[in-house]
Specification:
By secondary structure, the protein is α/β, with parallel strands linked by helices. The chain has 14 helices and 15 strands. α6 links the parallel β3 and β4. It is globular and about 70 Å long. It binds pyridoxal-5'-phosphate. Pyridoxal-5'-phosphate binds next to α5.
Length: 389
């Protein structure tokens, strides 16, 4: 079990805000903060290149930490600067041909869907959206019916940004494997919140961010590329880090996933990501999930007691993202009211997950996303405040 008092002692921000925007960016621990600031000082004192050289072993260790987190090999990890960049690097590396199909889900994130539409226009690729099942998650049965050998990519968001459900990623992986399609998982909201094991899920590609449930600094992200998928992909950009210029008219790509990286990156932030991953592993992802899920259920229960409040979360497995509306009160007004009382929530709007929000007849939602360092007392305060809006 998570020692909550200890977790809060190690999190400077909890004394200043009740933070329910962990799905936006979670509060970093003191350890992450110190790692980043110490390295910025080192850069100022010794020079940026020299400081990085001194930390070479710790920088290398970040790949090993990420590999432990996702249960893969270190050479299957590329470290990049955001989840979207990680996702794009994978998606645009696929050699699209006219007639290829993409199968995706209703609750897909806007950035992903915009990329599908661009590639559809550019290459005559067909985008097919798999319907939901009765619980609001992707229907694995419908997916299996729609899948055929023309499907080049199955692309799924593990936890949609606008609601509490966790899609059945491993079941989807089985279908993708049956038709020989590549499988790309947007795990932006799940990594750091629950155990995510790429060998269980069966994805070829996975993207995630550092700043959300992993509690890492902003400007960090990572991409997993299964070793056996590398030969089916061609990185959309290559620089002198992703490849080596070996003769006037030839180059060689890096052997592993690092071919997707660029030479330049924020060294302090990457070290901070390493610390954040190590801390998540030390707490234990099973324990983090248990704590997050039970706080979220408590919040849903308490919101259910407010007469004007509607909780909109769906799914068989419900996670730390809690979404609701208050009848007659705009979401921004709720957010502003809470913010003035040092409580952070966020607002999800239709254009971020257009298909899903339109289907459900929703224009906007308030999202209160909990982490393991939140408390029942903070939830009390939040609900009490909501009753006065
Ligand atoms: C936040 C989010 C993203 C984007 O992550 P960035 O780090 O901002 O690029 C992508 N997909 C989902 C489901 C998200 O919630």
């Amino acid at each position: 079990m998570i020692d909550v008092a200890r977790a809060r002692e190690l999190t400077p921000g909890v004394g200043k805000v009740a933070h329910f925007n962990n799905a936006g960016a979670a509060l970093p621990s003191r350890g992450v903060l110190d790692t980043v600031i110490d390295h910025l000082r080192r850069e100022a004192d010794t020079g940026g290149y020299e400081a990085a050289n001194r930390e070479a072993a710790r920088l290398e260790a970040v790949y090993h930490s990420a590999a432990r987190l996702l249960n893969c090999a270190p050479d299957e990890i590329a470290l990049v600067d955001s989840a979207t960049r990680a996702w794009d690097l994978a998606f645009y590396a696929i050699p699209w041909k006219p007639g290829d199909r993409i199968l995706t889900s209703k609750a897909e994130y806007a950035s992903n869907f915009i990329a599908y539409l661009q590639i559809a226009d550019r290459h005559g690729v067909q985008v097919d959206v798999v319907p939901n099942d009765g619980l609001g998650q992707i229907s694995v049965e419908a997916l299996r019916e729609m899948a055929d050998e023309r499907v080049k990519l199955v692309s799924l968001t593990h936890i949609p940004t606008n609601g509490g459900l966790v899609n059945p990623a491993a079941e989807v992986g089985k279908v993708a494997a049956e038709v020989g399609a590549l499988y790309l998982l947007d795990a932006c909201q799940s990594v750091g919140q629950l155990p995510v094991d790429v060998s269980v899920i069966g994805c070829d590609l996975l993207s995630t961010t550092g700043r959300k449930y992993l509690r890492a600094p902003r400007g960090t992200g990572l991409l997993y590329v299964r070793r056996t998928a590398l030969h089916r992909l061609d990185p959309p950009f290559l620089d002198l880090h992703g490849a080596r210029w070996v003769s006037p008219d030839s180059y060689e790509q890096q052997p592993g996933a690092r071919r997707f990286e660029t030479w330049e990156y924020g060294v302090a932030a990457r070290l901070g990501l390493g610390t954040a991953i190590d801390e998540a592993l030390a707490w234990g992802l099973d324990d983090i999930r248990d704590r997050v899920y039970s706080l979220a259920e408590l919040l849903r229960e308490r919101l259910g007691e407010l007469p004007d409040c509607r909780v909109h979360d769906r799914g068989a497995e419900r996670c730390g993202l809690v979404t609701f509306t208050l009848d007659g009160v705009p979401a921004d007004e709720i957010k502003t009211h809470l913010s003035a009382r040092s409580m952070n929530v966020s607002v999800s709007r239709a254009p971020s997950t257009l298909l899903d929000m339109t289907d459900r007849g929703l224009g906007e939602l308030v999202r209160a996303s909990v982490h393991y360092y939140n408390t029942a007392e903070e939830i009390d305060r939040l609900v009490r405040e909501l009753a006065t809006v």
